[in-house]
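Whiteboard transcription, Tuesday session. T.W. wrote the structure tokens on the left side:
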């Protein structure tokens, strides 16, 4: 008697946008070693290994054990760090759309081997697994397509990535209300490709600004939004560097000759758009770049009264749950290493722009009472633009 279903193997797939995984090894039926590919910078330094996104086919035949390995790298030139820890709860999906976190009893941290083991029995034959819920260029395309019919929306391409993808800049405002008297807020999302929470929040913010409820915010503020700062990295399943290895949130220093437009055309395009806006006589009242970390959550920036005002509003009206209070940003991200300014530091140094950076954790948020979901990120995006508008009033 034949059991053809037994012949089909469990297979791993990364042939889709944003996917990433190293070479998988099977050690026994249902047990797989899955090295995380990771990514290093232009000098082979600062390897970070916290993006994995893959599909398993043939999974619904019993218990599956997946060991995520090769996690150690370095952060800001300090070796030995690993973003994946005992607190990491990856996500899974049966349709590549709706994502659920693995529960604590499905996750096992091996501190000796620095390895995260996932043990579960899938309900379906096909399951997608990722570090955080993916948000790819396809999600962005869908967002921009929905936005296009609005009379309050404008799209421009500020330049091209290393691979020739557009670097979008979106303007949202009510064109019937004169610019005089409006505040100007610039927002930037997804400078680091693994940080999908930034994009989900950006998606929520843009949809809110174009909605019925966003009408007042369009009258009060000109919103200039970079919704996707590293389209190449997002497409190839990168971690935090552009195709040439440059960290797009570390090379904004205008003074040290470190900024090389040809190697980091993404920064060049965004910088040109920002400076052109100022040089045309417009103002910038506020700039924010939104990021994710595993465990830290905070706001920092150049102008303390505005930053403290915004933080107070975020504490009162959103799930923002900082691991440290607002602080003035340092002059550089990496003392002793010339040129290592993030976008907020660089814009403040170059043009005295009130510029801020925010990190949001992907681990358990005690204020939410759960691991942050896609819906939580979208909701935060809606609340964030309302808090910014209120802080600027
Ligand atoms: Zn980041």
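and on the right, the sequence the group agreed on:
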């Amino acid at each position: 008697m034949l059991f053809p279903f037994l012949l089909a193997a469990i297979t791993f797939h990364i042939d889709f946008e944003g996917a990433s995984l190293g070479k998988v090894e099977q050690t026994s039926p249902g047990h797989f070693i899955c090295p995380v590919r990771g990514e290093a910078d232009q000098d082979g330094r600062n390897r970070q290994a916290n993006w994995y996104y893959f599909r398993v086919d043939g999974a619904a035949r019993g218990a599956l054990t997946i060991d995520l390995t090769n996690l150690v790298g370095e952060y800001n030139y300090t070796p030995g760090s690993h973003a994946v820890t005992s607190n990491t709860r990856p996500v899974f999906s049966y349709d590549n759309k709706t994502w659920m976190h693995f529960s604590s009893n499905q996750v096992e941290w091996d501190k000796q081997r620095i390895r995260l083991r996932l043990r579960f029995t899938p309900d379906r034959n096909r399951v997608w697994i990722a570090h955080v819920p993916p948000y790819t260029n396809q999600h962005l395309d869908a967002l921009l397509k929905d936005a296009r019919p609005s009379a309050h929306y404008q799209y421009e391409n500020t330049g091209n990535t290393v691979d020739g993808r557009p670097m979008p800049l979106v303007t949202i405002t009510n064109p019937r209300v004169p610019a005089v008297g409006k505040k100007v807020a610039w927002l930037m999302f997804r400078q680091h490709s693994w940080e999908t929470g930034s994009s989900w929040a950006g998606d929520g913010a843009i949809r809110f600004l174009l909605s019925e409820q966003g009408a007042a915010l369009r009258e009060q503020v000109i919103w200039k939004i970079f919704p996707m700062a590293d389209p190449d990295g997002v497409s190839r399943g990168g971690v935090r560097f552009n195709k040439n290895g440059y960290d797009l949130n570390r090379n904004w220093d205008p003074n040290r000759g470190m900024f090389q437009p040809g190697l980091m055309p993404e920064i060049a395009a965004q910088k040109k758009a920002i400076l052109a806006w100022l040089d045309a006589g417009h103002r910038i009242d506020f700039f924010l770049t939104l990021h994710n970390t595993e465990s830290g959550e905070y706001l920092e920036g150049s102008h303390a009264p505005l930053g403290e005002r915004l933080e107070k509003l975020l504490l009162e009206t959103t799930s923002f749950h900082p691991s440290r209070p607002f602080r003035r940003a340092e002059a550089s991200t990496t003392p002793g290493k010339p040129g290592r300014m993030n976008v907020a530091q660089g814009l403040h140094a170059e043009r005295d722009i009130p510029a801020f950076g925010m990190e949001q954790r992907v681990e358990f948020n005690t204020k939410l009472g759960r691991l942050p979901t896609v819906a939580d990120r979208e909701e935060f995006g809606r609340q964030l633009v309302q808090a910014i508008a209120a802080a600027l009033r």
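Someone added at the bottom: Confidence is low (pLDDT under 50) at residues 1-5.
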